[in-house]
Amino acid sequence: MKQTMKNRLIAQGATTWAKNGSERLYINVAGEKLLGLTYTTYKNGGISSAKLNGETISNASAGNFLTVVSETYYDMATGELVIAKPRFVKEYDFTKIKEMIEEAIAKMAADIEAEAAKAAAEQIIAEKPEGAARVTVNRFDDDDDDDESAEQWAVWQGEWIDNDTPDWYGDHDEAWEAWHTLAIGLIDGESVYMQRFDENGNVKEDFAHELRREDGDIHEYYGDARLWM
Questions:
Q1: Residue 172's closest CA among 163, 164, 180?
Q2: Tell me: the pLDDT tens digits for 112-142?
Q3: Domain ranges of the chain
Q4: Per residue in 135-150, pLDDT tens?
Q5: Which residues contact 43 (CB under 8 A, 6 or more apart)?
Q6: How far apart are CA 199 and CA 133, in angstroms?
Q7: Could you tell me the pTM of the whole model?
């Protein structure tokens, strides 16, 4: 379990438990928020009304949700999410609640990953040396290379052979921004590319410029050479 996930859950109401070398993170109130469960109680603590994502549900159903959530925890030694079936919750109800908890946790994890990827891409752009963001590495010596009026840039993800419909741009800066924006959603091992062409679709660079995510970071390559990142 990543520290960011742990911190996010604790901030939303999860609680830690430790004993005899074991440590657990009970999702508790964080689980209620992830599921969209809200409820009111009588003075004696009994549920008086409840809603799930804005839809009214029975007090009994709300009680089932609270029971399952209260016994759901992360085993901090293994990172496993443990959702045990309470004795008095019916199998059908438990299965439904368990699936909802797993989906909610998965969405939170995906949101955290997306936020981290976006922050990494924004940092890369912010730290790029002045002027470097607009430099196109070109290995050709054509006399017409200085005339960009008839040039175009293709931006795509994955191998070119798998992308017969890349996005085309007539402006280098727009292509560069689109290229980096596309890179935000990459997972480790994936790449996005940008390459320069003439007005007839003929390539004007030896290689496509590549943004590749490796170990959570985005690096730029030209051919087999890693550039400044």
A1: 180
A2: 887 877 776 666 556 554 444 333 333 333 4
A3: 3-122, 130-226
A4: 333 333 344 444 555 7
A5: none
A6: 23
A7: 0.57
